[in-house]
Amino acid sequence: MLIRELAQEEWPAQLAEIPGPPKKLWARGAMPPAGHKLLTVVGSRAVTRYGQEVCERLIAGLAGYPVSIVSGFALGTDTCAHRAALRAGLHTLVIPGSGLGDSVLYPRSNRGFAKEVLDQGGGFVSEYPSEAPSRIYYFPQRNRLMVGIADAVLLIEAGQKSGTLITARLAGEYNRELLCVPHRIGDAHGFGGHLFTRLGATVVTEPLHLLEALKIAPRETATGTAPIDLEDSELGVWSMLEEPRTRDEIVRGASSAAGEILTALVSLELRGLIKEEYGAWRRV
Question: Where does the DprA winged helix domain start and stop, copy by copy (predicted)?
């Protein structure tokens, strides 16, 4: 797809609010549709399995809502966020630390994935000319655009020395709501999330929390109708919850292994489909 310079009226309005806004923007593919909220997702390049699962579950729960997922195209969390958005049928916007030409997109290993993003209706935007190769100092500059363009910023995970901490700090400086995924106490990958939570960031454990931060009203759905994208073990748990049941009752009554059932419970809870109250699980 052709690379074009964006006219000022095409720029996301939020970028006018940040210090040192870009002088020019180039785009490729589709910009976020009018009326969409922009959720920027950041995290470690060495994303853990837990971080990947949470990223996928939270974004999957936004399917059907007017949300665009923004990230930086790096390996790890960024790529996970873009892929999860495409699987959920959401628009995704890539802001790389380079120009947008095929020969300079960074990282090189994601150039094939760039075609998938464009083919599925996503877009790319950069303040660098089309054939500008990546430079070390481009990435912090790029990060200010990722935060500046956002309605909210979701931090999946970040270690004590992660560059993601700088990006998360910008959320506070730019008056963007910062959302953090909790981790186990002592988990080095949770350093960033726990640090910013202590400083006032919002804890996120389910898609509903993302919708609240983006000021999007959740859909009212019939609790008796199962979502169409449930896996077998998830559907089994869902079917059992026509009335509230304890965890032990669910495990004893299910045909799947206990481990699969516990994973299904976590998955359904992260998607905001079930919740535990007073020791019993029920549909939301």
Answer: 237-276
The CA distance from 125 to 77, in Å, is 19
Residues with Cβ within 8 Å of residue 78, at least 6 apart in sequence:
41, 42, 43, 45, 71, 72
CA dihedral 82, 88, 89, 94 (to 10 degrees): -10
- Domains, the chain, in order of start with CATH, read 3-213 (3.40.50.450), 232-283 (1.10.10.10)
Alpha helices by DSSP H, 174-246: 191-198, 207-213, 232-240
pLDDT band for position 225 (cuts 50, 70, 90): low
If DSSP codes are grouped into helix, strand and coil, which group holds residue 191? Answer: helix
Q: What is the DSSP letter of 245?
A: B
pLDDT band for 80, please (50, 70, 90 cuts).
very high
**pLDDT level of residue 122 (50, 70, 90 thresholds):** very high
The residue with tokens 């593919």 is 29
SS3 sequence of 29-90? ECCCCCCCEEEEEECCCCCCHHHHHHHHHHHHCCCCCCEEEEECCCCCHHHHHHHHHHHCCC
Give me the pLDDT at residue 255, please: 81
The helix or strand, by DSSP H or E, that contains position 124, with its residue range, turns out to be strand 123-126
pTM of the model: 0.78
**Side chain identity at 120, as an amino acid letter?**
Q
